Amino acid sequence: MNIEGAHEELFRKATQRLDELEKLPAHNANKNLFEALESKGFSRRDFMKWSGMMTTALALPATFAPLTARAAEVANRLPVVWLHMAECTGCSESLLRSDAPSIDSLIFDYISLEYHETVMAASGWQAEHNLDSAIEKYAGEYILLVEGGIPKGSSEFYLTIGGHGRTGAEEARIASKHAKAIFAIGTCSSFGGIQAAYPNPTNAVPLSQITNRNVINVPGCPPSEKNIVGNVLHFILFGSLPTLDAYNRPTWAYGLRIHDLCERRGRFDAGQFVEHFGDENAQKGYCLYKVGCKGPYTFNNCSKLRFNQHTSWPIQAGHGCIGCSEPNFWDTMNPFEEPIGNKLFTTSFNGMGADKTADTIGAVVLGAAAVGIAAHAIISSTKEAK
Ligand code: SF4
Ligand code: SF4
What we know:
It is found in: Cell envelope. Helices cover 44% and strands 8% of the residues.
């Protein structure tokens, strides 16, 4: 089948799925997506524009935009359970910031969120009861999103939650068992995060080491709101898991390196670098590699989607990427304001630093970065979801 034929088939299947979902009862019939959008000053046109942007982000043809809009409209047909483990809640905050809600955060508010400790009124025994009821009532139907690293084994008790004193690992295992699809939201849940940084005193591990179910990782510290909402929309549209890389990250979001789409890439190739924060080269917008940018080793779409309603992202603001969507980045990407090439060269080339080569010619730095890039590319080769 040629590519057009494959798209037509995909379009037909997604339409059929949305038709079926539309027939299901809405879980939160009291909420109206368009009223919520209007009350925050978003027009129908803004919503369609947003749908077009999400369609592009999901690597779908532009003709799918009306389907993406429909997927958002039926998002209240699928129950969602969101669990918190050992973390800072920054991933939830990425979606829930209330001073200027985005269309993404309004859609998140509109989905059938059956359980989310940060936003629900219940606590203690009542909260635990709500979780058990949601799992029982929607067994096999709900989408599970988990935020935070999880202490494992003899350290499980470090994370003890709720009236019955269950451990986080226990809750995650129970909720995973009955979920339709499972997403690890943020680097803590995807790879362990800061809790798992050396010496990892609580033996924190990613969700994928707690359950034997397939877990889709949506890393980032925090991930952009579009990567969170996009994954839910993708599941609503197709009812199946997306194509994943070797770290179980959806390739539509994590298929390219930060370096590939960076607005400072031309400076890198020309050997024009910021030497110190605040220097003249920083004012000129030169490449941040020599002040520690980890963009060449980091797979994510920050430069495309940006943060805070698409206004900016770290490199635009003048700080290098810290590699927060990569496994163990707290240990492997530090020091955050020094080039990783120094590490690679110290071990591989008897102490010859990347700074020195950068002084000589940008192309040599490209070679230095390629050491890490090539190693990363090998382990990040794509694979199909099970
Ligand atoms: S991934 Fe980062 S932002 Fe999200 S909970 Fe962990 S530490 Fe916080
Ligand atoms: S090293 Fe960083 S700042 Fe420089 S081009 Fe690559 S991603 Fe951009």
